[in-house]
Structure to design on (487 residues):
């Protein structure tokens, strides 16, 4: 009954999540709007484009009832530009995620806290210069399901593989930042990368935390004694030297 | 009969029975809990629950009950539609069924993840009223019964032959509680969802580290690694989500 899995999504679950992403399809058959649990689908009228969740788009594609329009970032030219950015412009950190399409305004709105996979980051009108959160899964799924809809699928496949390698190296390197503890940012990271790197990164973090526990407790006590509390960083410099 | 007639008919029937539009369950006005909003909330609840080592609060707004109701109705609808074997409706039927299966997977995986956590630290979640608050009604019943059975089994198999003062399962002798809980300091991956307090909608996270504490502004959509106890408050406020 109980779920025999560790905390954190498995790659299969990430792919499931990715199938909720919206993509743009060009229908080849009419299909009336359906009242699904997650809201009504748009009525499909060829040749008008319509946004659909990926799982439904794949279903239509498999039955040759629609073609999927690849997101602009999946085109070879965009991927090439992003790869250049990843290797040359910013060799240490990931390329930035797409900007949030809905601004936080002064009035609370339901779009304020929306996050992937419910952001339209892979529809036909999404920005071409950013890798969305589900880039790897989405790219792989589309290459698998509809290579005929993607221009130069082989080149896209190679570029995706290159990107994956560059970014995997960054993911591994990010472990160095975990040493001192605290919060470390992985801005721009993808879902599958998180899923892959989770056990390693969390393992390193927890291991280091347990090793450094007495030191952390000692530091806290000392800070409390000094009554400062705020400026923890400088107090420790000297001691660090002694340890390393 | 044309497909559009059928669908219209179904829509009408669907609306008739929509409990969220009515007041049957006492939940909000219509539109407040749209299917899409519920799907997003359910997905987030599932991902959060799968990511955290600790049991998260049971959704108080009746999300799970609502989602279960929706699925039940959609299944009834499918059963009615299976009656007419028009090939055109058949395909709509496949789509509807596929979606129902997806919802069912979400709910099932969510509940199973919770049961796994309750099984692991039953006494912990039953030990204080604040922790018990996090369990849903059926989960409290499950946890209590689970613990009863377990305790009965322990008593009859070995605890019974111990001296009385060693029979407790919740001793705190020596300053160490016997009741183990989940690791609250474990590392998690979280994403900033935006907040009204920080500038530009970023969430300010205060992280504790070995060599120093640091504050970092987490922008919307930014993923960070942090200790669960440092971000729990933000996740419960809905300013961050686990990934």
């Amino acid at each position: 009954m109980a779920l025999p899995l560790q905390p954190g999504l498995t790659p299969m679950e990430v792919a499931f999540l990715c199938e909720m992403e919206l993509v743009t399809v060009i229908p080849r058959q009419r299909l009336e709007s359906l009242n699904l649990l997650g809201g009504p689908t748009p009525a499909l009228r060829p040749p008008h484009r319509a946004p659909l969740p990926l799982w439904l788009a794949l279903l239509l594609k498999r039955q040759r009832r629609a073609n999927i329009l690849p997101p602009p970032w999946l085109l070879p030219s965009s991927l090439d530009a992003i790869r250049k950015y990843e290797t040359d412009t910013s060799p240490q950190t990931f390329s930035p995620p797409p900007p949030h399409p809905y601004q936080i305004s002064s009035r609370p709105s339901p779009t304020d806290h929306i996050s992937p996979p419910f952001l339209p980051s892979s529809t036909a009108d999404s920005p071409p210069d950013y890798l969305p959160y589900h880039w790897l899964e989405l790219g792989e799924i589309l290459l698998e399901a509809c290579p005929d809809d993607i221009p130069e699928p082989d080149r896209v496949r190679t570029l995706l593989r290159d990107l994956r390698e560059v970014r995997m190296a960054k993911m591994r390197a990010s472990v160095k930042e975990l040493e001192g503890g605290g919060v470390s940012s992985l801005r721009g990271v993808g879902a599958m990368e998180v899923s892959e790197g989770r056990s390693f990164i969390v393992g390193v973090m927890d291991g280091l935390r347990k090793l450094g526990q007495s030191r952390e407790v000692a530091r806290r006590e000392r800070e409390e004694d000094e009554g400062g509390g705020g400026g923890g960083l400088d107090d420790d410099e000297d001691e660090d030297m002694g340890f390393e | 009969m044309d497909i559009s007639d059928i669908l219209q008919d179904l829509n009408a029937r669907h609306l008739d029975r929509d409990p969220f539009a009515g007041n049957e369950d006492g939940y909000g006005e219509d539109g407040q809990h749209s299917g899409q909003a519920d799907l997003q909330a359910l997905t987030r609840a599932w991902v959060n629950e799968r990511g955290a080592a600790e049991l998260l609060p049971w959704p108080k707004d009746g999300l799970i009950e609502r989602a279960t109701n929706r699925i039940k109705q959609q299944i009834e609808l499918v059963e009615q539609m299976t009656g007419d074997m028009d090939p055109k409706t058949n395909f709509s039927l496949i789509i509807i069924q596929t979606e129902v299966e997806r919802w069912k997977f979400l709910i099932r995986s969510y509940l199973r993840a919770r049961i796994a956590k309750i099984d692991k630290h039953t006494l912990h979640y039953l030990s204080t009223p604040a922790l018990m608050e996090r369990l849903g009604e059926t989960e409290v019943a499950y946890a209590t019964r689970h613990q009863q059975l377990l305790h009965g089994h322990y008593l009859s198999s070995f605890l019974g032959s111990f001296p009385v003062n060693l029979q407790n399962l919740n001793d705190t002798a020596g300053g160490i509680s016997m009741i183990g809980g989940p690791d609250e300091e474990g590392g998690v991956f979280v994403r900033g969802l935006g907040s009204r307090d920080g500038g530009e909608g970023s969430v300010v996270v205060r992280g504790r580290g070995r060599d120093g504490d640091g504050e970092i502004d987490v922008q919307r959509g930014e993923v960070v690694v942090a200790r669960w106890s440092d971000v729990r408050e933000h996740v419960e406020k809905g300013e961050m989500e686990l990934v």
User: Anything to note?
Assistant: The first strand of chain A starts at residue 22 and ends at 27. Residues 6 and 193 of chain A are 17 Å apart (CA to CA). Chain A has one domain: 11-99+117-202. The domain at 11-99+117-202 of chain A is CATH 3.40.5.50 (Ribosomal Protein L9; domain 1).
